[in-house]
Amino acid sequence: MVPQWIIEKKRDGAEIGPEELREFISAYSQGDLPDYQMAAFAMAVYFKGMSFEEVSVMTDAMMRSGRTLDWSSLGKPTADKHSTGGIGDKISIPLAPLAASCGCAVPMISGRGLGITGGTLDKLESIPGYSTSLSPEKFRGVLEKTGCSIIGQTDDLAPADKKLYALRDVTGTVPSIPLIASSIMSKKLAEGTGSLVLDVKCGRGAFMKTRDEAKTLARTMIAIGKSMGRRVSALITDMNEPLGKTIGNTVEIEESIRILHGEGPDDVRNLTLELAAEMLTLSGAAASREEAVSALEKSIASGRAADTFARMIEAHGGDPRIVSRPGLMPRGRFTADVPSPRSGFVAGIDADAAGRIVLLLGGGRRKVTDSIDHGVGIEQLVQRGEKISEGEPLMRIIASTAEDAQHFVSEAARIVSLCDEPPPERRIILDRIAQ
Ligand code: URA
Fold first, then answer.
1. Which of 43, 89, 290, 324 has its CA 20 to 30 A from that of 317?
2. What is the CA radius of gyration of the chain?
3. CA-to-CA distance for 408 and 386, rounded, in angstroms?
C-alpha cells in the first residue's frame, strides 16, 4: 500500500478498494501511518464522500481495530441508544435505567461534552463517587446486577476511531456523513449491542442543520448496522431549541431524576418514553409499541425505574441517595434570575447560545483537557409556547461566583425570542426511520 496513492484516489473522487482501505485504517491505528496523511485523507472524504461499500469497510476496520464485546451469555436482549448530541440532551440518563427496568439490558458507552454540547459522562460525574471508567469485567458485572451501565469509551474499544475522531476535531473534518456514520457505528458495533436506536438531531444546536442531512446520516448508519446483523432504527428529532428546562451537569441529573419519578418537562419525558419503547420493541423485550409504553409507564409509577437508577449508581461507586435527595450533588452558590423584557409568548430559545453561556459559566470545556464545574448551569428555562409577563424570570442562572451570575443576565435575556401570539407547537420527533 502506498498511502499517498490512496489519498490521491479519494481526492480525485475514485473509489478505494476494500483491501486498500482496510490496510490504510489498520496502518493508522498501529501508528504506521502519520496523522498528516490521515488528515489529508479525511479532508478528501469530506469533499468527495464515500460509497456505501467504502463506509461499511471503514466501519468494520475501525470496529476490528480493538476489542469487541459479546453479551450473548447475559440471557437477555441488549439495546442501546446513541444521540448525535445536542443542548440539554440528558435523555440517556433516565433512558438506560427505564429501559433496563422493563427487561432489556443496556450496555451504554457514552462520551464527554466538547464545545457547547454537554456529555453524559460529565453529567454522571456530578453524582458524588460515580465512576465512568470501569474495566470490561466490571462493566459486565454491573450489567448483570442492575441491567444497565453507562461508562466511557475504553482505550481498547475501536481505538482507530478514538485516534481519528481526535484528529478530525482539529482538522475541520467532523461534519462529514461517511466519517460520522463510520465513527459512531464502529463504537456501537464494538460495544456488542444487539439493537440500537439512533436519535439523530437536526437544527441550530446540532451537527446536522437540516432534516434531509439528518435522514441521510440515519439511513447510512441503519444500513451499516443491518449489513452487520444488528437491528437499528432512528428517530430524527428537533434540536433548534434546548431539550427540557435545564442545561448543565447537576441540573440535568436533577431533571433526569424528575423524569424517573414521573415528573419533569413534557419534551424530555415524551422523547425518553419514545426512545425506550423503540429499544424494547426493536430488541424483542416488548411485542408492540403499546405494550412497551404501558410497561414503561408502570415502571415509572411503581418506582422501579428510579430504583434501577439508584442501583446502577451504587454499582458504579456513586451515592444512590441523590435519587431522593438531589441536593447532595454540587451546586453553584450564586444564582440570578433573568427577567423577561416584555410580556408575550416564548417563540423560541437559541440552543447554540444557551450552550455557550453554560460553557462560559464553567459547565463545559474549551479544550479536551479542561476540567468542568458540575454545579453551574441554567434551570427553570422557559419553553416554546409559554406565556410570560414582563419581569417574570425567563430562566435562572447558577454560577460559582456572584460576578458570573450577574455577568450573563443580559446576554441570557437575548437568547429567548418573544412574540404576541402563541407560536406553532414544537414537534420534537420529526421522522422515524426503520431498517
Ligand atoms: N459522534 C461520534 O462518535 N463521532 C462523530 O464523528 C460525531 C459524533
1. 89
2. 22
3. 22
Q: For ligand 1, is residue 110 a contact (CB within 6 Å)? A: no
Ligand 1 centroid – CA 77 distance (Å): 25
Question: Considering Cα of 287, then 288, then 290, then 293, what sign does the dihedral take?
Answer: positive
DSSP per-residue letters across 147-212? SEEEEEPPTTSSHHHHHHHHHHHTTT--S-HHHHHHHHHHHHHHHT-SEEEEEEEESTTSSB-SHH
32: left (phi over 0), alpha (psi -120 to 50) or beta: alpha
| Residue 28 Cα distances to 67, 113, 188, 369, angstroms | 17, 25, 20, 23
Range name among 90-99, 169-178, 285-294 with the lowest pLDDT average: 169-178
What is the amino acid identity at position 140?
R
pLDDT over 90 for what percent of the chain? 90
**pLDDT tens, residue by residue, 302-321:** 999 999 999 999 999 999 99
Question: What ligand 1 atom has the least distance to the C-alpha of 84?
Answer: 8
Q: The pTM is what?
A: 0.94
Does ligand 1 lie within 6 Å of residue 46's CB atom? no
366 confidence band (pLDDT: 50, 70, 90): confident
422 CA to centre of ligand 1 in angstroms: 36
Best mutation site among 59, 82, 84 for ligand 1, i.e. most ligand atoms within 8 A of its Cβ?
A: 84
Which amino acid residue places its CA nearest to atom 2 of ligand 1?
184
Q: What does the pLDDT look like over 88-108, one tens digit per residue? A: 999 999 999 999 999 999 999
| Ligand 1 pocket residue status of 28, Cβ below 6 Å | no
- CA–CA dist 372, 362 (Å, integer): 6
> Is 298 marked active-site?
no
54 contacts 15 by C-beta, under 8 angstroms: yes
Q: How many CA atoms lie within 13 A of 409 on its CB side?
A: 15
Three-state DSSP class for residue 404: helix
Residue 30 burial class via C-beta count within 10 angstroms: exposed 0-12, middle 13-18, buried 19 and up: exposed
Q: Do the beta carbons of residue 246 and residue 396 sit within 8 Å?
A: no
Note the pLDDT of residue 365: 84
pLDDT tens per residue, range 232-286: 999 999 999 999 999 999 999 999 999 999 999 999 999 999 999 999 999 999 9
Q: Catalytic pick from 60, 122, 161, 404? A: 161
Q: Cα separation of 393 and 380, whole Å?
A: 8
